[in-house]
Amino acid sequence: MPPHPEEAERDGHDEQRPLLADDTTPVGQQQQQQQQQQPQQQQPPPPLGYSRRRLLLSGVLVLVAAIQGAALVNPAMNALVEGAACQQLHPEVKGPDRYRDRACKAADVQDRLAMVMGWESTWALVPALATAIPYGVFMDRRGPKVMATLVSLGGLLVQVGELTTTLYPNVFDLRGIWVASFLGNLVGGGPLGFEATQYAVASLIATEANRQVSIPTHGRHLLLLTLPPLLDRTLVFFYLACLVQLNFAVSGPLVYWAMNASPVVAQLLGMALMTLSLLLTFTLPSGLTTTKHVAKAAVAPASVRQAFAKTWRASKQAATEFLQLFRRDAQLALLLVSLVFSTIGARQSLIRQQYATNRYGWTWAEAGAIISLVSLVSLLVLAVLVPAASAWLLTFKTPLGKDLFLARLGILALLVGSLLVGLSRTTAQFVAAQAVYAMDACYPPAVTSVVASVAAAGGGGRTGLVYVTVVFMRMVGSLVAGPLVFGVFRVGLRLGGDWIGLPFFFEAALQVFTVAVTFWVRERRVGSETVSDGEGAVGVAEYGRPDQGKCLSAFRAYKTKYNQVKRCPNGFRSEFSLEIIIIIIIIIIIIIIIIIIIIIIIIIIIIIIIIIIIIIIIIIIIIIIIIIIIIIIIIIIIIIIIIIIIIIIIIIIIIIIIIIIIIIIIIIIIIIIIIIIIIIIIIIIIIIIIIIIIIIIIIIIIIIIIIIIIIIIIIIIIIIIIIIIIIIIIIIIIIIIIIIIIIIIIIIIIIIIIITIVIKQQQRLSLIITIINSTPALYDLSSTTPMYLTKTLEIAALAFLGVR
């Protein structure tokens, strides 16, 4: 087993130092020192790759335990803080009910939850940012083992403090969570130290830093074996991201079960897994560092003042190198700044669970389990889509070009996913939007590799500091994201309704800058690249400056066509880039299609609104007509009833008169003629009544016929209007389809024309390279003649190509 760096310093050498270095102690003196010291136990030589395999196994175990613990404590802490805030604001809610009571979903409780958790992430990052450079130097010198132990210990202390604060809300103010987060993350640097340790271990597995294996022989540590690199650095980063997403994916059932039991159970189980992660850090191999410096032998223990002075000097040097990363190159500076914006946009995971519980009525267990879906999609992207896309992209792109392409796809997924989450109104839409959002999983590892490549192109040397800088910029974004995103979310909560999705639109707006930067960055290569035609290496394209590498695509096209060994001339320049033109064309087409779709949607919405308004007007008219008809019928019925009553009264009066007349006739013995007259009068009255009734019936029948005719006319008018509307809609849809077809045909024609022009320009470029390379004198002229002659050749070539 390789010794710990402290043991190596006491011995006067370490495993990364050559045996016959200039400052090595002579053999005689070394033997005397070994006789004075306790003899070390002889160990058998470890097998080849021992450090790498042990580092890989231990690192995976530590990461699995830590992520499973984090997956449990994140939703648990949200529920615990909500319950504590609910108990403080609503004292009537007590006991375990505070984790499930609907009163805890009130606006005041959710506002306090957003405030506490938003600033908690900031207070967690303040010590991480303050100690970033010292911990970066510390990890460069001492290796990832000690750093991983400190990070695990600090994370465990944070969870202990936060659990104590939330379990006793009547004793502790909830802002005590900020204090616990701040103090705990001073140990190990918190999330920044955790991510930096991940990248450092992954880099040691993949790159030169862990290729040398020390084999102790007779008490001496010799650099005897050198291992070949096993994996590409970018591939290791993607494997690391896959492992993280796989852990989160499989943690879903465990989180759901634990949260259904109780948030306290989930928190305690997560802390137990974090304790296991802390214990597993002691299995990491010692003696591995992220820099190639050689530790000098310590003759005597240094004083505390000397140790502080040494640490201060190292921190100042690291700070200087940190600033040089921004001064060295504009592309590198913009990439690092864009990490801040992309991190703010990616921090919707902070509010995702609270958003789901508020808008869709989910429980915290259900909201915690959504991480499984997100992680499964991310795992699919990282484990299936990214390797397949990488293999395909590497057939016509360099590794840096491949990483740039994947980073661009990832940031576009983040932009579109944020918009879709904000627009989601149902649970199904929210889940689908989360799946789209999770497709940005390829962005962090890809952009990290891009930053490392760009930094290496500028002459960067310290791997640990580069990765700490990457994580540092992300943590700056996280530092701002906490209060910012939760502040916007609190505004959305106060506005209510669809405004609750306001933070997602805000995050999408921030990604416009990151998208612009990732599409602006160009490939830049260092060293040389061997070009193969499938049968072997057929040539080497040398490039050291950015302008010397721009002809590489033309060189490959020429090599493919002529299958000859050629060389890109050092003085030749061209701004021609087929991939960039195709990407720009695709972006323009996507924008045009999106605009067309938006216009069509707006037209359809306007048509639907007009139709709805017309239908509403027709319905109102029909209702008014029906009401008028009903009123007329009621009036007619009332008139008929009045007439009938009058007739009945008249009949009664006539009968009374007849009775009186009969009585009078009986009394005075009226003659029979009078009786006949009376009978005739009665008959006449009856006939009149019958005639009146017949007239009334005829009038009613006529009114009913008129009403039926009016209703039929109204129905016919409505049918005609509906038919006209349908015809208008069909005509509009046909016109829209014709316009879309014409636009698509125009776009296809433009694409064909542009691709034809591009191919012709590439053929001309290949021809120019053929002319230049086939004339040996041109190489001599490029290296020996004055600069103006070389410029003349370049201008002539560019004029022939039509490139300005």
Automatic annotation (TrEMBL):
GO terms for cellular component: membrane. The keyword Transferase does not apply. Residues 29-41 have a biased composition (Low complexity). The chain crosses the membrane at residues 55-73, 121-138, 150-168, 236-257, 264-284, 330-346, 367-393, 405-423, 435-458, 464-489, 501-521, 580-613, 620-653, 659-692, 699-726, 732-759. It is found in: Membrane. It is a multi-pass membrane protein. GO terms for molecular function: transmembrane transporter activity. Residues 1-17 have a biased composition (Basic and acidic residues). Residues 1-50 are annotated as: Disordered. Keywords: Membrane, Transmembrane, Transmembrane helix. InterPro entries: MFS_trans_sf (IPR036259). The keyword Oxidoreductase does not apply. Its main location: membrane. This is Major facilitator superfamily domain, general substrate transporter.
